[in-house]
Amino acid sequence: MNINQLRAFVSIVEKGTFSAAARSMGVSQPAVSLQIQALEEFVGVELLDRRTKKVQLTEAGKLFYPSALQIVTQIDNVQHQLEELGDSVKGRLAVGGSTIPGEYVLPKLLGRFKREFPDVSITLKIGDTNEIAEQVISGELQVGLIGAKFSSGQLTSRAFLHDELVFITPSDHELAKQRAVTLEDLRKADFIIRERGSGTRQTIEGFLTTHGMSFDDFNVVMELGSTEAVVNAVSAGLGVSIVSKWAAERSLKLGELVTVKIPGFSFMRDLYLVVSKHVPTRSAGAFLSFIDALDVDEIKP
């Protein structure tokens, strides 16, 4: 039994499939299968039930998993501590972002950071706001950038960037011809929204609440799992939506979409930097210092 076998086992349990585990580890699926086969031969029992689409733990696997996770975590922690002893900044930096900062902001930031700190290995996880915050709390991620405020005594949180939300419509839609639209106009239109847990959705819901409304009052025709999917659906003429200007920028320049003002809906939301209250690793500390020294105007759309 070796650490690579334990890593493969833990990754399969977390990701749900051999293929997803292989992608997250940067190896082939057959390599992961061989690691699990060798591990099961060593312990003498089957740890995973492969008969279902999503791999399930056997009873033996349920007993074995907590110890395997603890071993992998402890070895990772020791490895990080040893990396801290060197003169240069090295090691792993695990960053997460909700959809907008994860797809449109963090790639730019991490690219610049990598040029300054080439010895740091970077991973970027994209999820919804709640998911990223929870993974920072659990220690799976070191730093998160999310689209809504997340209250937790286990995190430090601060506003980092402003993000403008805009109303978008296909360029040939009847509302595209108007200088401004009302909430009543929006209620009649086919509306496309993000899934629950999205920071963008939470911001819009907060605005509607102040006007005594909710999405239940709208003709919601689609609920999609990413902002890019929302923008593409609006570009295809399937409805209208409210999204981050970052996400709509390309389609607006191509003329596929137009923005129309909503009186009373001209505002900026904050994107929040979240960090665990535990002492950060050297690589995470370097990234936070890098962000503090950054001119944020350079990355705005």
From TrEMBL:
The keyword Transcription applies. The keyword Transcription applies. One of its GO terms (molecular function) is transcription cis-regulatory region binding. Keywords: DNA-binding, Transcription, Transcription regulation. Residues 1-58 form the HTH lysR-type domain. NCBIfam families: LysR_Sec_metab (NF040786). Belongs to the LysR transcriptional regulatory family. This is HTH lysR-type domain-containing protein. It comes from Candidatus Aquicultor primus.
